[in-house]
Amino acid sequence: MSDADDPKCDPSPTGSEPDSKRDHSRREFVRAAVASGASATLAACLAGESSVTAPAGVAEPASLPDRQHAWNDASPTDADGNVRPPRHHVFWNLSLAVEPDGAARDTVATALAALERALEWSTDGLLFSLGYTPAYFDRFDASLHESVDLPPPDPMVVLAAESDVTVDTTDALLHLVSDDGAVVLAAEEALFGERDRLNGHAVSASLDGIFERTDRRTGFVGAGLPADRQRGLEGVPDSEPVPEGAPFFMGFRSGFRESQATEDRVTIREGPFAGATTQHFETVELDLDAWFDEHDHEHRVARLFSPDHAEREAVGEYGERLDTTTDVTAVTDEIHAHARDEGIVGHAQKLARAREDGEPLLLRRDVNTTDGDVCGLHFVSLQRELAEFRRVREAMAGEAFGQYGLGPRQSNGILQYLRLRHWGSYLVPPRSRRALPRPNPKA
Ligand code: HEM
């Protein structure tokens, strides 16, 4: 019996719905499965050969771009020309279970290349990256090459006293993404030895036994997804305020091309890790009750963009009036006047002040999450050096506006609605060095 004939595998309640309704039910079902970490049986149904049909990968994975983070050219753009991020995301924190020797390195390399042979490097197929923490590199006698800026993760750079933040002390972070949730589930299974075929290709090696999986996190981004997920979610007002067109829970578009660093800008240029990038990952919980119930739309635009954007009605309901730019640099000089006279500074307005020669330093790839049934954001950013992230994150803390009475609980951007929960830093090596890298590979 094929998966399609198996009633256990049919997401529709009756198993006999019309095609359009059935497709919708299946999408809902797959989405829920990605978020929950489907049971083996369920995942097998979802990700079985008959239900995962994706474009095939390449015979020679070495022909793919050397940067693991080369996702932009493999992603579609929206109607305005901004990169449209992949819709479904799974993150695994991994702890190394063996010595990082040559045999382990070969196994990891083979297991990762199998994904690239089976699935196209695209959002229709699969994109992924494997990054390593400072704790991973600590086990070696040699130090991490000086061309890499990867200090131990330290959330205190932005926190005065808040507790309850976990720091990632595992060894690696795997990030798997696709527009098709079933592809992410199938790739996850293949990578950890729970299936030996993927999209019609044999899988001959797995990470099982090399890494232990610790925490699984999930994310999603795209118009319609947060609006769907807000229903019945704790901490979200009953009025279900997130607009259908908004890709993010706070109700607005983000990631406009001109406020994102390019992949070139975030890439390490020299040394044994040329082609790598550094990755920051933090999880914040969102207080959507307060965000939507305490203020009107105009105030939310002022807080997220700037008071000027709110006054000019420049943003629209969820950002549809913007194209590839927020034009926020036009109001960065006015920020002190806005703080003093209007008692508000915008998040984007604050953050744009941290650009260098007019260019953003961070390539943001953040996603919504409902992990633990809490509404939140996994904020992922790439930058050449962690010090650049730190500078931008300090700009977000906005301490300079305390002199106008704007502390973190006042109209100082969106700080008031965020609670930081998790924080980690990684080196995402070039593809050629992504399997258990030594800290100084040419030495
Ligand atoms: C729930 C949390 C967050 C939300 C809803 C959010 C939303 C937004 C929005 C709507 C924009 C303006 C649109 C755009 O330029 O893409 C923006 C810009 C930006 N955000 Fe956030 N953001 C959040 C957290 C963060 C965090 C934690 C950082 C880390 C430093 C950050 C860094 C930036 C940067 C660098 C910009 C671009 C500024 C520029 O134009 O140069 N955001 N964000």
UniProtKB/TrEMBL annotation:
InterPro entries: Dimeric_a/b-barrel (IPR011008), DUF7405 (IPR055828), TAT_signal (IPR006311). SUPFAM superfamilies: Dimeric alpha+beta barrel. Pfam families: DUF7405. Residues 1-27, 57-83, 222-242 are annotated as: Disordered. Residues 18-27 have a biased composition (Basic and acidic residues). This is Tat pathway signal protein. The lineage of its organism: Archaea, Methanobacteriati, Methanobacteriota, Stenosarchaea group, Halobacteria.
